[in-house]
Design goal:
- Residues 1-26 form the signal peptide.
- By secondary structure, the chain is an alpha+beta fold.
- Helices cover 15% and strands 38% of the residues.
- The chain has three helices and eleven strands; from the N terminus they run αααβββββββββββ.
- The strands form two sheets. Strands 4, 5, 6, 7, 8, 10 and 11 form a seven-stranded antiparallel beta sheet that branches. Strands 1-2-3-9 form a four-stranded antiparallel beta sheet.
- The longest helix has 19 residues, at 3-21.
Length: 231
C-alpha cells in the first residue's frame, strides 16, 4: 500500500473515531472546567449598523468538520481536527447565539507503522495552544481567544514532561470536546480562528538530544449566518 493511501486511510479513521468518542473520553469534566476558566469570551454589544460583504468561504461550515495538517519534519505530521459541537448544524451558527466547537491535536509518524511502539516513533510534545479570532467582513479582532497549557486540560496521569504534553503516546493526543464562542457583533458574516501550537519535535526516535522547538500556525474560517430577526 502506498504512503499516500495509508495517510488517507489513517486520517479518515482518526476523524471518525474522534467524532464518535469525544463525549465518552476520560477527563472531559476537567477539560470543560479548564476551558470555562481560560477561554471566557466577552459578549460584545451589537453595533447600530450591520456589516456587509460576501459570505466567508468555509469547508468547516460546509462539512461540519475539518482537518488542518502541518508537516513538522519529513513524514512527521501534526493534525488539528475541528468539528461543530453545538449546534452541530453549522447553518444555525448565528451572531447572537452561543456556538461550540471541539478540537483534537494528534501527531503521525509515517516513517513507521501506526501500531509501532513509542520507542520507534519520533516524539512530539505540545506545550501551548493559542487561538485568536478575526471577524468578517471588516477583519476586526474578535473577542474570542484562548491560551492554555494543554497539560492542564488532561488527567494528571497523562504522559508529559517539561517539554509539554506527549501527543503520540498510547493515551492519544489532546482532546478538547467543547469550546464556546459567545455572542458576536450584529452584522458579523464570519469568524476566522487562528491556531498557534508550540511544539517540541524529536529529530530521530529515542534521541533526547534531537528535539527542536517550533510553532505551527493554522487558520480556520467559519461562516456566520444572519439571525432570524435580521431576515
Amino acid at each position: 500500500m502506498s504512503a499516500s493511501i495509508r495517510r488517507a486511510l489513517i486520517r479518515s479513521a482518526a476523524v471518525a473515531t474522534l467524532l464518535a468518542t469525544a463525549s465518552l473520553t476520560a477527563g472531559c469534566t476537567q477539560v470543560l472546567s479548564a476551558i470555562e476558566a481560560q477561554a471566557a469570551v466577552e459578549r460584545s454589544p451589537a453595533p447600530s449598523s450591520a456589516g456587509t460583504g460576501a459570505p466567508l468561504e468555509s469547508a468547516f461550515t460546509d462539512d461540519g468538520s475539518v482537518s488542518l495538517t502541518s508537516d513538522v519534519a519529513d513524514d512527521l505530521e501534526v493534525r488539528i481536527d475541528v468539528w461543530a459541537a453545538d449546534p452541530k448544524r453549522t447553518e444555525e451558527w448565528t451572531a447572537s447565539a452561543d456556538k461550540a466547537f471541539g478540537f483534537a491535536v494528534n501527531v503521525y509518524d509515517y516513517r513507521v507503522a501506526e501500531k509501532s511502539v513509542l520507542a520507534d516513533k519520533r516524539r512530539v510534545y505540545l506545550s501551548q495552544v493559542s487561538i485568536t479570532s478575526t471577524l468578517s467582513p471588516d477583519r476586526s479582532a474578535g473577542s474570542f481567544q484562548l491560551t492554555v497549557d494543554p497539560r492542564t486540560l488532561v488527567p494528571a496521569d497523562t504522559l508529559r514532561s517539561d517539554r509539554g504534553l506527549l501527543l503520540n503516546s498510547y493515551q492519544g493526543g489532546l482532546l478538547v470536546p467543547e469550546t464556546i464562542v459567545s455572542q458576536l457583533p450584529a452584522g458579523t458574516t464570519g469568524i476566522t480562528l487562528e491556531f498557534a501550537l508550540t511544539l517540541s519535535a524529536e529529530g530521530a526516535a529515542s534521541d533526547d538530544d534531537s528535539f527542536q522547538q517550533q510553532t505551527v500556525y493554522q487558520t480556520l474560517p467559519i461562516r456566520i449566518f444572519p439571525d432570524a430577526s435580521d431576515g
